[in-house]
Amino acid sequence: MSRIVILLTAIAMSLQTTNLFAQTEQTPADEQEKFNVVETISHHISDSHHWNVLAWDGGKKSIDIPLPVMAYNTQTGDFLFTLSSSFDDGKTLQKNGVTYALDHHDKLLADGSRHNVFDFSLTRNVASGLMTSVILLLVFCGAARSIRKNGGIPKGAAGAAEYLMVFVKDIADEQIGKEKGARFTPFLLTLFFFIWFNNLVGLLPFFPGSSNLSGNIAFTGILAVFTFLVTHIFANKHYWIETFTVPNVPGIMKLIMIPLEILTMFIRPFTLLVRLFANITGGHIIVISLFSLIFILNTIGIAPVSVLLGLLVFTLELIFGALQAYIFTVLSALYISLAVNASAEE
User: Fold this and answer.
1) Quick one: pLDDT at residue 233?
2) What is the rounded CA–CA span in Å between residue 171 and residue 165?
3) What is the crossing angle of helices 251-296 and 178-203, to 10°?
4) Predicted TM-score (pTM) of this structure
5) Which stretches of the chain drop beneath a pLDDT of 70?
6) How far is C-alpha 220 from the chain's CA centre?
7) Shortest CA distance to 202 belongs to which of 91, 277, 302, 121?
């Protein structure tokens, strides 16, 4: 079984190398344009208005799934609704006297400026998040049906799903307490599985993977905001008293401690969003950088070392994907516990 997993992973990494670097045109060494590793990494970790399925012939030919482009022009007050395939010819589109374009980073421009347009398109990362949500619904609804059919006894995949759910429930019980933790268990379950599944989808080197949702700071920021809101909406009165009065502290020290306590309220979710964003993005950058060695050094001799190191880091990323979901969930549970279990100072 382990050999099959290794073989499938190696094939996946080979496909990743093909897709990532198909845009590097095969020309003689004296004519070949210098490989731009920064541009390649930036293209991979950034969002896009289309979803690439396959590329070949040096990136000249590709199969892409166009995604809806939806935007509001702040200058004219017009709305734009179209598909990204409309921009294929020169990457521009004319509508109502306005020139819309997708730049080399696939950002939407209106008359050459990003500030003229409010882009709320269904991008690759958004589509990936929606797909992950559907997968989660199918997995857990299927597990629930399986358990009902077997008289409440989980078997196979349903057993694995139940084990993971109990694992997250134990986090809530340990950090928050059994009585109060039950209220927050659904939220923590959603956090853990949504982050983990998105991390796994992002590691798939071929369609429908290759997105970088967990490496998007807007996505991690929204998750951190949810944790912040849940923490402070359900915080008890003692938490607020300790935050704004800091009891049992000399009066002169309160001038320092109260601003620090208020600042800590916002630092905690900020560290959550930065940790998840930095770790996932860093993992993607390392994997691509290792494969890029083949093109930077322009020799096939480095390929075995590059592929083996890339395969090792890719395997570690599978572990780190689950680990980052676990850390985000545990810290969220800890912050909630500090708010709902705060007690009066004696």
Assistant:
1) 95
2) 10
3) 20
4) 0.82
5) 1-35, 43, 55-61, 88-90, 344-346
6) 7
7) 277
Helices (H) and strands (E) in the chain, counts: 9, 8
Distance CA 69, CA 91 (A): 13
Enumerate the domain spans of the chain: 68-119, 124-340
Residue 276: exposure state from Cβ atoms within 10 A (0-12, 13-18, ≥19): buried
Whether the CB-CB separation of 55 and 25 falls below 8 Å is answered with no
CB atoms within 10 A of CB 315: 15
Locate 245 and state its tokens.
């009065």
Structure tokens at 234: 């359900």
Beta-sheet pairing, 92-95 with 98-102: antiparallel
State the Cα–Cα distance between residues 159 and 136, nearest whole angstrom: 15
Is the Cβ–Cβ distance between 314 and 287 less than 8 Å? Answer: yes
Per-residue buried b or exposed e for 125-145, using 16+ beta carbons within 10 Å of the residue's own CB: bbbbbebbeebbeebbeebee
